[in-house]
Amino acid sequence: MATLGFVEYKDASPEVKAVYDDIMTTRKIDWINNFWKALANDPATLKRTWQDIKQIMGPGTLDPLTKELIYVAVSVSNQCGYCIASHTASAKIKGMTDDMFKELMAVVGMANETNRLSAGYQVEIDEQFRK
Amino acid sequence: MATLGFVEYKDASPEVKAVYDDIMTTRKIDWINNFWKALANDPATLKRTWQDIKQIMGPGTLDPLTKELIYVAVSVSNQCGYCIASHTASAKIKGMTDDMFKELMAVVGMANETNRLSAGYQVEIDEQFRK
Amino acid sequence: MATLGFVEYKDASPEVKAVYDDIMTTRKIDWINNFWKALANDPATLKRTWQDIKQIMGPGTLDPLTKELIYVAVSVSNQCGYCIASHTASAKIKGMTDDMFKELMAVVGMANETNRLSAGYQVEIDEQFRK
Amino acid sequence: MATLGFVEYKDASPEVKAVYDDIMTTRKIDWINNFWKALANDPATLKRTWQDIKQIMGPGTLDPLTKELIYVAVSVSNQCGYCIASHTASAKIKGMTDDMFKELMAVVGMANETNRLSAGYQVEIDEQFRK
Amino acid sequence: MATLGFVEYKDASPEVKAVYDDIMTTRKIDWINNFWKALANDPATLKRTWQDIKQIMGPGTLDPLTKELIYVAVSVSNQCGYCIASHTASAKIKGMTDDMFKELMAVVGMANETNRLSAGYQVEIDEQFRK
Amino acid sequence: MATLGFVEYKDASPEVKAVYDDIMTTRKIDWINNFWKALANDPATLKRTWQDIKQIMGPGTLDPLTKELIYVAVSVSNQCGYCIASHTASAKIKGMTDDMFKELMAVVGMANETNRLSAGYQVEIDEQFRK
User: Fold this and answer.
1) Total Cβ atoms within 10 A of residue B28
2) B124: contact with C, CB 8 A cutoff
3) Alpha-carbon distance B5 to F93, whole Å?
4) Contacts across the B-D interface (CB distance below 8 Å)
5) Which of A24, A48, B5, D121 could serve as E38's disulfide partner, Cβ 3.0–4.6 Å?
6) Residues of D in contact with F72 (CB under 8 A)
7) Do B63 and B110 belong together in one domain?
């Protein structure tokens, strides 16, 4: 039901097809998930978002799995159903084990709890943290 | 100005002192940050929260630095000023380099962006992610 | 499955019917969407919310379409599924084209990204913005 | 530094003064806090917001203190610094003891934690809760 | 479809069964809801979360119903579908009437509104609230 | 106190200076605000973010002022202090009058309220909105 519908590969413009091809090549998969097929209604946003994701989520000082865990953590905090489903799947492909997932959830839960405790108790930032 | 003020070490009950000592021993530091001194007004919550944090943030399948990066990611998403300051400092102590921080921020920013794109385009979860 | 069920027009009290009639007249439609039928379980909240919406979303210095775009932007940021669906539909009725929708989404995504970058980098407010 | 500045009592229009007077009378206080003095730049919003607050926060099936605790809970979840400060103060005036505050914070923290655990584990709603 | 599936009572380890039994005894019910069956994939988190919830949500200075209302308020602010459904059901069991629910929703809605008005108008915290 | 400090123009690399120059030229201003000076610690993110912002916030089907209002709306919903201050200032420069600001705030507040009412009442999406 996506707002503007999905752009399927066979119906895509050459510009969109090029992005789809790059996604499949980069990820070594043979299908495109709904997020990109929805974004493809706006080729400029599709292209920009994919290029940003490709650059940001690739290997760096942090490895791709760690980055994907962070992506899941943010998506869970934000209650984004689609993102939780898709990035949890991506994380598994990149090597997240069940034990890693459980620890990830424990940290995300705890962070959300103490974020509110510190706000609720109106805790001032320590001088030691202000540099 | 914390809501209930801070409980300083010298004024703490033996129960609170025991937690303070454990925090300093575990973290190899000689001071207690404001978060714990605010929570100490409620010794049960202080003790529970510290024990949970200690268990969850310790070594596991994920290493302590990765967990701390996840903590920062959540705190940034939630706009929790105190938590951003304190966990960024903790992450540095645990080995986060400036380059890691920059990559972390890039991922957090991107995740927050695509979380809204997927919600706004009302993207349905792919069958492939539903198992 | 709404928590308290829906109040259908034929079962509504005169007080609720009057609000329903005003909604349909104001919006030039012949049906009531689920949000109002759920709120109608609490006639005081129904009446207050409708009056507020009617006043706030009507023509002013900002035109009704701009206001509706802002409503969608907030709903997307908040991951409110019902609100995204209903206000996107309203925006279309008020004249939002597909191109406007795409630009709206791009801005909302970008704002959510930079909101976290500025928080994560702990950026202080410039003197120039403090007046 | 509020965006539009504050409207002080002595400079207020009769319409704004009437709201200020009603706030002070209702709350049995002799000053107006900054929130209202900022809103007063928009008399229509000032009046509407005050009337809504007055109606909603007054005695009902839930007593005023319980309502104020709920207000604090929401403000803490949302990381709204001003609202946490002002509604914590209001709650104390309405009878919130330190012990109540501590329990309130514990519940808010826990709810924020389990909200993420249930989202992260992608827990489906039980049939038993769907009626 | 929960990420790691559900752990049913008959398949549970003795450690998990003990938690399930305690949940059913404490709540005087004869079934376990999906949240716990998902968490049971991580027995340490299951046990810790249940013990925390049991301690925090039990009778204290605030009665169990008030705590449950606060839990619902947070869950609604966070747009957590599962938590809204489950804690609304729990609140009803603990005595929440329809009228209480309606007032709860009105307060939660209003708090979310004024949280943004105070942030948007950049209202400074009054000196009177800073102690 | 920004986490990595600020990169001032005189100390910037040619790559960063080029972005700073483009920001000042595009915006017809002679200074760089703290957000960019913090991001400049990560030239890749600085460049990408500026290029994205420049493209997205420029004239399109939606005019630049409308886009800026949407940016403010998101920032207010997210309680991002820096973003509220900087984008409110930008909006004024682009033509936002005080009356527009007041209407903007009213819409943002109302949207945040009804987002929670619809979630709290567990309102199902109408068939009419599902196409």
Assistant:
1) 7
2) no
3) 42
4) 18
5) D121
6) none
7) yes
Contacts of A123 (CB under 8 A, 6+ apart): B2, B34, B35, B38, B82
Distance CA E101, CA E107 (A): 10
Structure tokens at A127: 């001088």
Same domain, D65 and D118: yes
Nearest to A48 among F1, F52, F130 (CB): F52
Cα(A62)–Cα(A66) distance, integer angstroms: 6
Q: Cβ neighbours of residue A33 under 8 Å, at least 6 residues apart?
A: A86, B126, B128, B129
**What are the angstrom distances between the C-alpha of A100 and each of A68, A103, A107?**
12, 5, 11
Query: Which chain A positions have a beta carbon within 8 Å of D116's beta carbon?
Result: 76-77, 105, 108-109, 112
pTM: 0.97
Number of domains in chain B: 2
* Pair (E81, E130) in one structural domain: yes
Check: CB of residue E128 under 8 Å from CB of residue D89.
yes
Q: What's the Cα-to-Cα distance from E53 to each of B48, D106, E95, rounded to whole Å?
A: 11, 10, 19
pLDDT tens by residue, D113-129: 999 999 999 999 999 99
Question: The domain that contains E42 carries what CATH number?
Answer: 1.20.1290.10
The answer to whether B13 and B43 have CB atoms below 8 angstroms apart is yes
> H helices of D62-97, where?
64-77, 81-93
What the block records as the tokens of A97 is 């084990």
Distances (CA, A) of F72 to C28, C65, D15, F68: 31, 17, 29, 6
Neighbours of E56 (CB within 10 A): 20
The overall longest dimension of chain E from CA atoms, in Å, is: 59
Alpha carbon of A38: minimum distance to chain D alpha carbons (Å): 22
Residue D40, both tokens: 């007063």
- Contacts for A8 with CB less than 8 Å, ≥ 6 apart: A37
F115 in contact with E at a CB cutoff of 8 Å? yes
Tell me if C105 and A45 make a contact (CB, 8 A cut-off).
Answer: yes
Do A68 and A110 lie in one domain? The reply is: yes
Which residues of chain C register pLDDT less than 70? 1, 131
Selection from F24, F89, F95, F26 nearest residue F63 by Cα: F95
Check residue D87 and give left, alpha or beta (phi > 0: left; psi -120 to 50: alpha): alpha
Is there a contact between A110 and B35 (Cβ–Cβ < 8 Å)?
no
pLDDT band per the 50, 70, 90 thresholds, residue D131: low
Is the pLDDT at B77 greater than 80? The verdict is yes
pLDDT at position A101, please? 98
Q: Is there a contact between D35 and E117 (Cβ–Cβ < 8 Å)?
A: yes
Q: What is the largest CA-CA distance in chain D?
A: 59
pLDDT in tens, D79-109: 999 999 999 999 999 999 999 999 999 999 9
| Structural domain ending residue among the three candidates F57, F77, F95 | F57
Instruction: Give me the pLDDT at residue E130, please.
Output: 85
Same domain, B32 and B69: no
Query: For F10, which DSSP code?
Result: G
E40: distance to nearest CA of chain B, Å? 16
What's the burial of C92, exposed, middle or buried (CB within 10 Å: 0-12/13-18/19+)? middle
Closest partner CB to F109 (pick from E88, E116, E122): E116
Task: Out of D57, D84, D102, pick the residue that ends a domain.
Answer: D57
DSSP conformational letter for C9:
G
> Within this chain, do residues C85 and C131 fall inside the same structural domain, yes or no?
yes
Neighbours of D98 (CB within 10 A): 13
| Residue E70 near chain A (CB below 8 Å) | no
Are A80 and A107 contained in the same domain? yes
Confidence of residue F130 (pLDDT cuts 50, 70, 90): confident
Query: E44 and E66: one domain?
Result: no
Domain range for B106 is 59-131
